[in-house]
Amino acid sequence: MASTTNHIHENTHHNGSTISHIPKKPKLSSSSSSSSPITPSEIDSEFDHHDPAVARINNGSFGCCPASIIAEQQRWQLKYLRQPDSFYFNDLKTGILRSRTIIKGLVNADHVDQISIVDNATTAAAIVLQHTAWAFREGRFQKGDVVLMLHYAYGAVKKSMEAYVTRAGGKVIEVPLPFPVNSNDEIISEFRKALERGNSDGKRVRLAVIDHVTSMPCVIIPVKELIKICRDEGVEQVFVDAAHSIGCTDVDMKEIGADFYTSNLHKWFFCPPSIAFLYSRSHSKGSDLHHPVVSHEYGNGLAVESAWIGTRDYSSQLVVPAALEFVNRFEGGIEGIKKRNHDAVVEMGNMLAEAWGTHLGSPPHMCASMVMVGLPACLGVASDSDALKLRTHLRDGFGVEVPMYFRPLRDGEVGLVTGYARISHQVYNKVDDYYKFRDAVNQLVQSGFTCALLSD
């Protein structure tokens, strides 16, 4: 493991809690002499378990995991299976603490207890929205007070709003966002309008849920600017749903200033599924923030509660040191990977848009490692169902895996692009992956294909 993950000294209190003494934050770039920079052939070897028949340009949905980290995960799994009691009493707590400590450094948090490890960003959203629901139920928030979220919030988060906030008496207001989008100002303007609606008629916006990188369509949201507006307008708490952020765009808890922030590590930080962190600015043991799965650690603080939710496979949460070691084999570490992915995906997006006579869904500065690319209008993407059927057709018929998005025409619009593809770039991708996608779409266009020809 990288040397920065080995020097963690721990003292165990009589109640089982652990205090760590960490000499410095983990190294985030690859200047270590302990391993040589990774070569193209080694990258190929790390991902040779990927299906070679598929142009996999959808890292955003499920991420990827290198062979070396899979091997480390299997080592942890076997260690547990060999002697579960020893693993539980001697390895699990310290291993998760080590992972939390690395994440703390990666995101520039003040204290390791601000970092809890959970299954994924959906779990983190449930934790925060459960906390909000209790505030409505217990009278700290008034019936009809508002929770604000973006229209492009992830579908599971919208369902969590129904399950927790609406049922508890809260009102949910969605911020409509333009797409295609040309500037941050367009997003900021719509956000201000929604805040004004939320704070009208004697009601208050109690919580704002803001994406950092929206999923579909994908756009980098100006979170720091929106959070400042929230503070100025008296919004009580801000939760940033940043499922894609760590390993994809800049993440700094001190600069962003959210009350809660979550990101997956299995999307862009090479961990196996599933692992995410939830940052909570307030991390006292008496906090009313709890894991929705109640186990023996209930009441000992969210980080401790989350570290044990019953017998399960915790191996994906224990390989963060190996993931850090992997990214540090690349020039510039994770920062270098992010820049190269961004530059490559913008280049490939422009290549596709030029080939199809379309456009990108946002300017390059509003893209991270994913870009929306307009599809030829003649494909006839006329519904969400068409977008899904086209995605399936490309997978099954052409060996191309890429998500599709339907953008309805607004009143008065005619002949504009209604279908977009969300392309990703990760270190394993090759130019040929995008050429394969280009050629598949061109073949469909030349054959007179439309989505109406696809059966349900």
TrEMBL record:
Pfam family, one: Aminotran_5
Coiled coil regions, renumbered to chain: none
Keyword RNA-binding on entry: no
Domain of life, per lineage: Eukaryota
InterPro entries: Aminotrans_V_dom (IPR000192), PyrdxlP-dep_Trfase (IPR015424), PyrdxlP-dep_Trfase_major (IPR015421)
Alphabetized SUPFAM superfamilies for the sequence: PLP-dependent transferases
Identification of the protein by name: Aminotransferase class V domain-containing protein
Organism of origin: Clitoria ternatea (Butterfly pea)
